[in-house]
Amino acid sequence: MTIDWENIFKDIGCNVRQVNILLDHVIPSEIVAETEKKVARFTDGEARLALLSEMLAQDEANAEAVRKMARGVVDIVKSYITDSIGPVDFASTRAALDELLAEMESRMAADSQAVDANAVSAGAPVAGSGNYGTGTCGTVTPNQMAKTQNFRVECYQRAAGQRGATFHVYASLDGLLDASAEAGVLYDTGNNPGGVKFTVGLPVLSEAGDQANQLSNWSLSGFQKGVNTAADGKIYVKLAKPGADTVVSLYTNPNRTDGLVAEGKILGGTSGNVTLAAKNGSGLTGTVDAAYTTDDSDIEIVPPFEYREGDVFTFSTASDEAGTFQCFFRDNLERSLPANGAGSETILDSWAE
């Protein structure tokens, strides 16, 4: 059965146009400006403040009436999909709107049909300055469900004695997203609100300053931030060969003379596995492979501290809102459609403008 996509989207486009006309009149810049003028004028005295309150309440009531009209038009589109497109164009027995929308997306893709795409992007995730865990959040990839909004990925449950943790994902417009993010597992909203995928990485030990690559395969246990490490979690390493033995020393102080917390050595040699024993009752132990070539006091490590409740990552997404149909389906039907860039679409936004 050949589907007349042009006819379908011209039908839908009439309603999309009406919704956009209505919503464009809810808070246009002119009304915002007038509201600001009211606020500036009616603040001198209790009587005038009461009058201002009445005016603002009426403005909101008027706006809500328009939004209600727009929601009514959206309901017409939903009925059109379930009562006309589904049984007539798709010859489908499906009744649920979300199932029909999924079928619509699938059939459009099969017929190489596409709406105009929104150009979407995402900023680099930023770890909270107070995070205890030392994991990072990987690159965020947005899809056509993405909006211009801010995200907060916050740990609410950690796996005791392990590096794993579970995170809530909050979006400033879409709210708390349905699925939680698990550390070390790809999080992907798919064709659902949020429109992002990313991975919160498991905490791993990080090393810096080892320019000669003399130390590798670190394994530490008993580490506690600010107790047997520096306050920020760093451990300062000293690699030296004062005599026949190669010595690896760990300190909490960057001067590498005070705050010795662990130490080990290779007896009479320069290469091998070093067992690090706790010093000064620190409780920090571990192992590291050494391949000594020269003394080095520039190496720093940060152990893989577990995530704790409240650890957070933030990032933002952006959309240029170029696709009229795409924005309508995303915002009102919580679905995106197959899309191509401007000039390559087959479903023209002009049918809804």
List the helices and strands and how they pair.
Blueprint: H1 5-24, H2 29-41, H3 46-89, H4 97-110, E1 115-116, E2 120-122, E3 126-127, E4 141-142, E5 149-158, E6 165-171, E7 175-176, E8 181-182, E9 186-188, E10 196-199, E11 206-208, E12 215-221, E13 235-240, E14 246-251, E15 260-266, E16 271-278, E17 285-291, E18 300-302, E19 312-319, H5 324-333, E20 339-340
Parallel strand pairs: 1-20
Antiparallel strand pairs: 2-19, 3-19, 4-10, 5-6, 5-19, 6-7, 6-8, 9-10, 11-18, 12-17, 13-14, 13-18, 14-15, 15-16, 16-17
Describe this structure in words.
With 353 residues, the protein is of the alpha+beta class. The longest helix is centred in the N-terminal third of the chain and has 44 residues, at 46-89. Helices cover 29% and strands 27% of the residues. The protein has 3 domains: 5-116; 120-203 and 307-319, no CATH class; 206-302.
Work out the helix count. 5
Order of helices and strands: HHHHEEEEEEEEEEEEEEEEEEEHE
Shape: elongated
Low-confidence stretches: none
- How far apart the termini lie comes to 29 Å
Summarize the structure.
The protein is an alpha+beta fold. The protein has 5 helices and 20 strands.
Which features characterize this protein?
alpha+beta; 353 residues; eight-stranded antiparallel β-sheet; 27% strand; 5 helices; seven-stranded antiparallel β-sheet; 3 domains
